[in-house]
Amino acid sequence: MCRIVQLILEQNYDKEQLLLAKIIRVYAPYWFEIARCPPLSYKLLDLAGKKQTRNIFRSKQESEVILEEITEEEIYGGHTIASALNFNLLGLSVSISQAGNDRFGPVKDLSPLGDMDGSLDLCAYDADGKFMRLFISTKPCPYQSVPTKVISVRPFMTFTNRLGQDIFIKLNSEDEPKVLHASDSRMSFIYRETRGPDELQVRLEDTEWSFPVQITKEDTISLVLRRHDGSRRFLRTEIRGYEEGSRFIVVFRLGSTNGPIRIENRTNSKRIAIRQSGFDEDAWIQLEPLSTSTFSWEDPYGQKIIDAKIDNHISMSVWKLDMEKTGLCSAEEEELGLQFHVIEMGDIKVVRFTEVTSSSNDEIRSLTSMGNWGSFHMQKEMQLNSTPIELIVELGVVGVSVVDHRPKELSYLYLERVFVSYSTGYDGGATSRFKLILGQLQIDNQLPLTLMPVLLATEQATDLHHPVFKMTITKRNENTDGVQVFPYVYIRVTDKVWRLNIHEPIIWALVDFYNNLQLNRVPQSTSVSAVDPEIRLNLIDVSEVRLKVSLETAPTQRPHGVLGVWSPILSAIGNAFKIQVHLRRVMHRDRFMRKSSIIPAVGNRIWRDLIHNPLHLIFSVDVLGMTSSTLASLSKGFAELSTDGQFLQLRSKQVWSRRITGVGDGIVQGTEALAQGVAFGVSGVVTKPMESARQNGLLGLAHGLGRAFLGFIVQPVSGALDFVSLTVDGIGASCSKCLEVLNNKTTFQRIRNPRAIRADGVLREYCEKEAVGQMILYLAEASRHFGCTELFKEPSKFAWSDYYEEHFSIPNQRIVLVTNKRVLLLQCLSPDKMDKKPCKIMWDVPWEELMAVELAKAGCQQPSHLILHLKSFKRSENFVRVIKCSVEEMDGREPQAVRICSVMRKMWKAYQSNMKSLVLKVPSSQRHVYFAWNEADGREPRTPNKAIIKSREFSSFSSTSDEKKFVKHTINFVKIWTSEQEAKGRCTLCRKQVAEDGGICTIWRPICPDGYVFIGDIARVGCHPPNVAAVYHNIDRLFALPVGYDLSRGAAVLHSFSTLIAGLAGDMPCVWRNCMDDYTTPVSIWHPRAPEGFVSPGCIAVANFEEPEPNLVYCVAESIAEEIVFEDQKIWSAPDAYPWACHIYQVRSDALHLVALRQIKEESDWKPMRVIDDPQPMLQ
Fold this sequence. Notes:
By secondary structure, the protein is α+β, with helices and mostly antiparallel strands. It comes from Xanthoceras sorbifolium.
């Protein structure tokens, strides 16, 4: 039977690179992994239908159903593949390959491999009848995404020589000696079969064979090797289990010179001989009076009883002594006069023979407490000299925030009742201990708009006396033979169930976070490569862990192409799994492993616990979740078929921000999705053909009709599928809530809201107020206009585009929210839950649409309202946005309107500054170069500061030189604006009104020579510039730049906002702006805000809706200014203009500067000012 290979071909498409290599992935259901074995051949046999009779050897003539045969030639690099295997119906027979003389061993049933930790051992024979015992086990593939099960074939037992000289080995009584060289590691041997058990014997070149030992468990024993001269040598033998795929690994090391047991003869005249009970006469060890000798059990698994032969020169007797009992024991025969005392001293057991005297008990006590020999005496001395040190850190609450490179907060780790202890110096300074206790642990998902805000938490709260996590690790400070010893590793997790809720975007965010860590930049402490050390765990105890894992997919937020062909499958069934995972308790003794193999071992253990819980996986399938996911995927597919960008964008935002908490939410949002699909489908029948025809003519009309027909079908279908999907989601959410209530489970909430990170990317100290404001921004929803009606909600409208900066709570449950791109006014429906329930966006003003910000007083002593003037508007729309602020007086704080205005102006100016910078990429070095231009940036004509034609001087009050005259007259001007109107619609009527008041008006700006300034623009009737105008010498402390510009000013105090919107004056300088529906070119007229001690005589005009440059016009010192009157003739008037009426007057002055008022001069309290005619006394 041939083996089947599954090939999957993937084609990657790229517009820039059309020719791409194809990726071929080969998957096999099973593969064999063979290591440290001689060449082997395998037979897989069918055991179905009959019970196999197992003989020692099987011939090819027997009627065996061979399903598959694997020869040595098919094994490449220790690996080969196999087709699908059913372990319950298969048998395996193995042979050691020898040039066609294969001799297969007995068939072994493979059904144990179907269990989680299943394994079996079998024998592989060669042509001479020798065999090797093999160990067969299964494990998952090391590549997690590859669905392949690995069948591991290893020697049952391997040997490693750490002695430094050759060792001779026999594996049973009939085996031939084999040499384990000094450099051999993980060696296996072929040996002869015997009817008895396999027992290990070893010897060195100058010793006899050790006592046969049968290896059946993990242990550390000492083998006694007798030399020819009667002395003994101890060989420390470590028997490790389940390492590197083998059942046992035997490591030989040099034993301690002190021996595991020390025998002391403390008598004055008696000769003592000892041996392990049951051995022959050659095993006696002689002890002369007042002498000592080392001792070890020749049979490590035999009786722990010694025979003591006492020779007192008169008689000789044998005394049997139990070494397992510590303490004092006297001889039964009183004439011997001996006492036997067993003492535990660290790792050494001391046996003492003493004579029965009056002081013997005191001597034994003193010897027990003090010790007087070798390493134990040194250990006691270390205990007396070393001082134990213990460092304890206790913390009530600990929070750790994980922020990526953008920056954006990804997760938040919250700990309560943290206890950390590190102690060293006890146990004679030989051991250190680390202890960690966590009273409470929770990990939050801090990504915005996540459906699962809590990543990891216990299902039920724990009390003060039962922490959720407790860990104790002890470590030996001195490594024996290069092995790091951990006497005790204890990990205890609460018996409560843990909930692991994974929303797909957090996976990709953490992957991106890891990829951008750039760990290679971390400096290394040393350039020396460390050898992978061996670790010995005397006892490891890890409690069981119970988890409930939930996965929520988000296909719209998944990186493109990251999952390949698995992406649509995961989108369809991703929400179907709410798995209950039970990780079993782990408890092992005397385990050896390499340090590098710890993490893979833990991962394999968890993986085995997962794949061997099929019932949990089956019963964890969420049918409602799978149905909802499948319908949502189909709905998305139909929506994409419509090719309607507006529909797709709105639907995508709704998918991102949906929060289904019950059946009600599901039905409401589903109905909204259905109505949205039907409305877009029906309206597209009219709008799409018209749009296409306007762009591409008749061909576009045909194309638009096709799109309209397709949208008329697929958009309602998409809405219907969304309706069913969301309704099913709501049913599932309600069922989950009911189960939580019945089981008395707590609802998971974040410990705190995500950290607010502003546009500058600076990490600041956490502020709860800012975090709440950021959540308000994330949840804020707008109403989507369908025609003239607000029909659909647009959730989280600015969550992905804007950064939070500040927010203010104002009267009537409203919120002013300032971001880096706009200012918003929100209506808060639930003030106590504004960080959990969305607020409605009443309006928003992007910074590029903001022309000016004003403070206004409505019958109050302090500013109570904020007025935002818009750049673009129509006659049917409001030209301002009004914010009503709180007027409550707070000690030491500015009024709320002032604070809001300050924040808005700061962000507005920062946005304007950012818009004047370009990021240029230099391809050669990939560095960023910033380019900035002038404040004017071409939006309006700059006024030259030097006259083009020199003018005659018409007035002078000084006989000084031309350069020092205070007043000069210029005849050079630049035109700023003309009042020409649109020749259509209602603008024609406006032209008629203007014609009655004097026709066309133009505004001009004088061009000043070097060192001279002007105090305001000039208005003229008609299209011709003025003949001459005065400009002034810029003398220090007589002229100053304005501190800003204002949009409104008048004598009346504002009483209501209806009058403001109608155009009545407030309490600031009077300025006018036109409406683009009426005039061919835009204009805004501003009044400079003079600094203290100065006045602003005239106004300044800008040929757009921007605030003028700060250095464009100058204010005049009060000392050289005087009050004057307007000229008798009005320059221009537009009483019916929108948004305000405009009346332009010329001040009676040589500068000819204009003043624009919203009222006629008789109704205004404006006082015209000019520079005095003779400022010479002030100059002197």
